[in-house]
Design goal:
Elements: H1 3-13, H2 20-65, H3 69-118, H4 151-173, E1 183-190, E2 198-205, E3 211-218, E4 223-231, E5 236-242, E6 256-267, E7 271-278, H5 287-316
Antiparallel strand pairs: 1-7, 2-6, 3-7, 4-5, 4-6
Helix pairs in contact: 1-3, 2-3, 2-5, 4-5
């Protein structure tokens, strides 16, 4: 039992008038007690959601970077469990918020009943001659200073700016779907008039990498080129089509001589065929870069939602501010 509940019980049993200062102090203690409980629930929800969202981001990053089907299913199931856990926690928070708000209003209503119960009956009005009101006009109310912004809002705003900057950097300046540090092995430009004639050319690899990375860069809208890459005197490592935007890799380039054959299957203008070497498979960014991208995206979206929710909650229940 809270200390104010004993005072409220005594106030209900009193028969003589309760001083206004005592009523105001008891009213303030009731409001502050339940406000602390609501803020405690709000902080617990914030910490819980932060942990759950961080776990979802880690699982989603693992889901995007793994190629094992069983691991993908396992990570997907865990993501669904974490998501449902956040939904249940939010439902619990609003249930507790409604319970605490209801209890606060009941206690304030009991205090109002105790005040009315001990208030003396009003005296009958007496008639008196009317005189002009010579009292000076009441002074204008002094404007109160605007409440200072919360500390957590001052911290989250720069964090939101950093998240937006990180998102822009990782998506536009460093595309996570494109490989970095490509070692060029072969490059040749063709005109659309070359038609379906096959071509062949030798090239030499002097720096070993983990994968071959072919690309077709068209001057027009599109192009489709068939290529075949093989080491001298050996079977082709790749024999198929390459289109603009395709992220693929094959083989493992070791120092030596290689042969590339090609044929233009479709082109509406000139195009360039490039073959290089990479260590990172295109389309599969590293765990750290993908995690930072997801984290910055989540912060850029969640922080404005937290700010809007804070304003909305304070509007419907000012005692939470």
């Amino acid at each position: 039992m809270e200390p104010f509940e004993i005072e409220l019980k005594n106030a209900l049993n009193r028969t003589h008038p309760i001083p206004a200062s005592e009523l105001a102090a008891l009213n303030e203690r009731i409001v502050q007690t339940y406000a602390r409980k609501q803020k405690g629930f709000s902080r617990l929800l914030g910490v819980y959601l932060a942990v759950m969202i961080l776990g979802i981001l880690v699982l989603w990053t693992l889901f995007m970077t793994t190629s094992n089907l069983k691991q993908c299913l396992f990570y997907g199931i865990l993501i669904l469990i974490f998501y449902e856990a956040t939904v249940l926690m939010k439902l619990w928070f609003w249930i507790m918020h409604g319970k605490v708000t209801t209890m606060r209003e009941i206690k304030l209503l009991q205090l109002a009943v105790a005040e009315l119960k001990t208030r003396p009956a009003p005296e009958p009005p007496r008639t008196a001659p009317s005189f002009p009101d010579e009292r000076p006009p009441a002074p204008a109310p002094t404007p109160t200073a605007a409440p200072s912004r919360k500390l957590w809002l001052k911290i989250l705003f720069p964090l939101w700016l950093a998240a937006v900057a990180s998102f822009v950097y990782l998506t536009w300046l460093q595309n996570p779907h494109e490989p970095r540090n490509v070692t060029p092995y072969f490059e040749k430009t063709f005109a659309a008039a070359d038609g379906t004639a096959e071509w062949q050319q030798d090239f030499e690899v002097t720096q070993a990498r983990q994968h071959f990375y072919p690309r077709v860069v068209p001057a027009g809208r599109s192009a489709r080129v068939w290529i075949s890459v093989s080491a001298e005197g050996k079977k082709p490592m790749y024999d198929g089509a390459v289109e603009p935007g395709s992220r693929m890799s094959f083989g493992q380039p070791a120092p030596g001589r290689y042969v590339i054959k090609g044929r233009t299957e479709m082109a509406d203008g000139s195009f360039t065929v490039r073959l290089g070497g990479v260590d990172e498979i295109p389309g599969t960014p590293s765990f750290g870069r993908l995690f930072l991208l997801l984290l910055s995206t989540a912060l850029a979206v969640v922080i404005p939602l937290l700010w809007l929710q804070d304003r909305w909650v304070r509007r419907i229940d000012p005692e939470l501010s």
